[in-house]
Amino acid sequence: MKLLSIFTPYIIGTVIFFPVVSQAQSNSEPQQYSLNMIAYEYKSPNHYATVLYMPYYPAYGLVSMKSSGCNAEIAGYIDPFALKNKKLTITYKRCKISFDINQETQELSQPSETTSCADYHPKNCSFSQMPTLKLIPLKIKD
Amino acid sequence: MIRNSSLGVLFLLMISSMPSSFANTQHHKTSPSKQTYNTPKAITRNDKPSIVTDSQISIYNAHKDKNNYVIALYTDQPGKALITYDSPTCQANSYGSTSINPKNKSEIEFTSTEDPLCKINFKKTNNNELKIIKETAACTAWHGDFCTFSSISLLTRIYPQ
């Protein structure tokens, strides 16, 4: 009870003070919109590949590759723990596709897939054969 | 007798030669036809790269106040799609597949993989805009009551620009 009586003024002060601070910030600074979508792409005359994912939980991702002999795509969950270690892992059922995220070069590379992923692409190709993808700079329009 | 028998032999010869001639014609027909079927396929394969070099995916965005809404999908073909909705009171993300209305190719239907009863219908108003026409009631269970897509109904394409 003694502790409560000591801390009560601080608690009341915090409750009153913080809304004022947050209002002041929103009035003085322009609002920043973060886009919950990160996109990578590879384009060549014979091959197209894209990887998109949401960085914020609950997060999902999409992997797609298209060429004259191979059309394959998959969408599933993002592993948030792998993402912290700069690994992008997209899981759909038992198929797991992983990439290395290189923030310096803004590239997605070293793709690998589990054996179950063979159910989602033709035999002559694989998600692990995907080329290195480049980050697409996405700008929000006002 | 000889005349009759010679005519009979001639008749038999004619009959025996007929199937082989048919077979020959068929054989000749099949091999050129294979070539004719193969040639256009080869041409389309050669033509495909020009399509592949273009961006296949389209990313649309809309924001109102602190609500931010992003959709990534193929607008000209059926495929996988991602939808994300951020607001202070609601975080609704989903993935699924799209199909294009064969009667009106500007209309796209998204079906959530997690809940196939949740369907969202979009309309491409022009090259740079995507309008949400309707969503099924099942989607409310997914995104809750605090964020309705009708509040941000028009999305602008941000990629490709």
Highlighted features:
heterodimer, A: 142 residues, alpha+beta, eight-stranded antiparallel β-barrel, 2 helices, globular, B: 161 residues, 2 domains, eight-stranded antiparallel beta barrel, 35% helix, 38% strand
Topology:
The complex is a heterodimer of chains A (142) and B (161).
Chain A: H1 2-28, E1 38-44, E2 47-53, E3 60-67, E4 71-78, H2 80-84, E5 87-92, E6 95-102, E7 107-113, E8 133-135
Antiparallel strand pairs in A: 1-2, 1-8, 2-3, 3-4, 4-5, 5-6, 6-7, 7-8
Chain B: H1 2-52, E1 58-64, E2 67-73, E3 79-87, E4 90-100, E5 107-112, E6 119-126, E7 129-135, H2 138-143, E8 154-159
Antiparallel strand pairs in B: 1-2, 1-8, 2-3, 3-4, 4-5, 5-6, 6-7, 7-8
Explain what the structure shows.
The complex is a heterodimer of chains A (142) and B (161). In chain A, 23% of the residues lie in helices and 38% in strands. With 142 residues, chain A is an alpha+beta fold. Chain B has 161 residues and is of the alpha+beta class. Chain B folds into two domains: 1-54; 58-159. Chain B contains two helices and eight strands. In chain B, strand 6 and strand 7 (129-135) form a beta hairpin. The chains are: A alpha+beta (142), B alpha+beta (161).
Number of domains of chain B: 2
The helix content of chain A, as a percent range, equals 10-25%
Number of strands of chain B: 8
Order of helices and strands of chain A: HEEEEHEEEE
Concise structural overview:
The complex is a heterodimer of chains A (142) and B (161). With 142 residues, chain A is an alpha+beta fold. Chain A contains two helices and eight strands; from the N terminus they run αββββαββββ.
